[in-house]
């Protein structure tokens, strides 16, 4: 799902496809708006958000790291449940430079812990890294993929994913084995970091 959400729908190619549709649906939209304008607007890195689900893809992993570190501390017994609000606040300040005013903005914003889903948060960042590496493999095998996306043609990518990923389901015992089969190597976090650098360096003229 993150491949479609981020690799496709937040891409320059998708902005080319989407802009005419937006202009058709919203006649008052400035006629001077360009696909580049739309792409930039969809990929704004905001001041760090207190809320995980409202954060951008650059700062989102920090939200996950905060939760992961608190989970580890809780499971190891080095902190008590009552310590979570203060620890959350200090980690938000340390990692993202902002501090929640209420627990609703802090440690109670997610349902995961209340339903026993301890250890689930890291799967979100793992998913982003998997998506990035799988898309890189798709681009290598489908050279015209971004032209297709710009034209609103998603069938080849969907078929490729169906064959390479969806059809095998849980056949492979681990994510690394699936990634090796699909992309030629186990999960490589550096691929995700390269993606962020390649994308946001020109956007923000870094």
Automatic annotation (TrEMBL):
<dbReference type="GO" id="GO:0004181">
    <property type="term" value="F:metallocarboxypeptidase activity"/>
</dbReference>
<protein>
    <recommendedName>
        <fullName>Carboxypeptidase</fullName>
    </recommendedName>
</protein>
<dbReference type="InterPro" id="IPR001333">
    <property type="entry name" value="Peptidase_M32_Taq"/>
</dbReference>
<dbReference type="Pfam" id="PF02074">
    <property type="entry name" value="Peptidase_M32"/>
</dbReference>
<dbReference type="GO" id="GO:0006508">
    <property type="term" value="P:proteolysis"/>
</dbReference>
């Amino acid at each position: 799902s993150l491949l479609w959400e981020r690799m496709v729908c937040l891409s320059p190619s998708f902005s080319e496809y989407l802009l005419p549709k937006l202009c058709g649906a919203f006649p008052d939209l400035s006629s001077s708006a360009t696909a580049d304008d739309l792409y930039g607007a969809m990929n704004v890195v905001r001041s760090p958000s207190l809320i995980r689900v409202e954060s951008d893809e650059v700062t989102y992993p920090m939200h996950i790291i905060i939760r992961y570190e608190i989970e580890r501390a809780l499971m190891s017994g080095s902190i008590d449940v009552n310590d979570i609000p203060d620890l959350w606040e200090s980690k938000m300040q340390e990692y993202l430079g902002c501090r929640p005013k209420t627990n609703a903005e802090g440690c109670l914003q997610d349902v995961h812990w209340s339903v026993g889903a301890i250890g689930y948060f890291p799967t979100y960042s793992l998913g982003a890294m998997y998506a990035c590496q799988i898309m890189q493999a798709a681009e290598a095998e489908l050279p015209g993929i971004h032209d297709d996306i710009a034209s609103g043609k998603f069938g080849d990518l969907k078929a490729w994913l169906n064959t390479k990923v969806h059809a095998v389901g849980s056949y492979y015992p681990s994510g690394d084995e699936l990634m090796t089969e699909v992309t030629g190597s186990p999960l490589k976090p550096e691929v995700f970091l390269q993606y962020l650098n390649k994308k946001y360096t020109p956007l923000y003229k870094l």
